[in-house]
Amino acid sequence: MTKLKIVAATVGGLFAVAHIGLLGYVFRRPNTPQVPTINIPHGEYSSYSIKAGKDGYQIDFRANDPAILESEQTLDLLKNKKGLFGGGIEDRLEYRRDQFTMDGFRNLGGATNEQGKSAKEVECIVADAGARSQGAMAGSAIAAGVAVPALSGIPYVGWLAGGWALLLGNKAGSEAGSQIGSVFNDC
Predict the structure, then answer these.
(1) pLDDT tens column, 84-98
(2) Which DSSP state fits 42?
(3) CB contact at 8 A, 109 and 160
(4) Are 83 and 53 in contact (CB under 8 A)?
């Protein structure tokens, strides 16, 4: 019985010491707020600003600052012309505004997306996808109404021949829709 008392006293003592140590840690902990560590990528043209307060923080980050390089040029020309029947005034104002990339190349128009496609090319791709979809639905509907009922009557392989006819109508309709769509959308 004494061994059981010794084991119980040891376990109880360890439990008490652990709780006292935990309470000491909690009460002696510094009362400073914990600030998160944020690893912001930085480069030659990046910029960021951080605003922090009691309610939280806000980060504004720009990976390519300045994003657009611009140049403006103006030319005013006033010229007096004396002719046979009197004088005249030529007044000309020329204005040019260019945008440049970071490498110094002038933007010649036609914005490009991340794959290097112009807005017209993207518009043509979207129009082609829609035309293909509509053509595929029309081809499937025609095949389902005409070919599939006739082919499904074939013994043993009618279901397979009907499926092939449906797929063939889908593909033919998709190709026809693409050609018609390219004509109507100037692509």
Answers:
(1) 665 666 677 777 887
(2) -
(3) no
(4) no
Whether this prediction's pTM lies above 0.90 is answered by no
Q: What is the pLDDT of residue 1?
A: 66
- Cα of first residue to Cα of last residue in the chain, in angstroms, is 96
Cα distance between residue 54 and residue 134, in whole Å:
56
Give domain limits for the chain: 48-107, 119-184
SS (H, E, C) 141-184: HHHHHHHHHHHCCCCCCHHHHHHHHHHHHHHHHHHHHHHHHHHH
Q: Which residues of the chain have pLDDT under 50?
A: none
Strand partners for 70: 99
Helices (H), the chain: 2-28, 119-151, 158-184
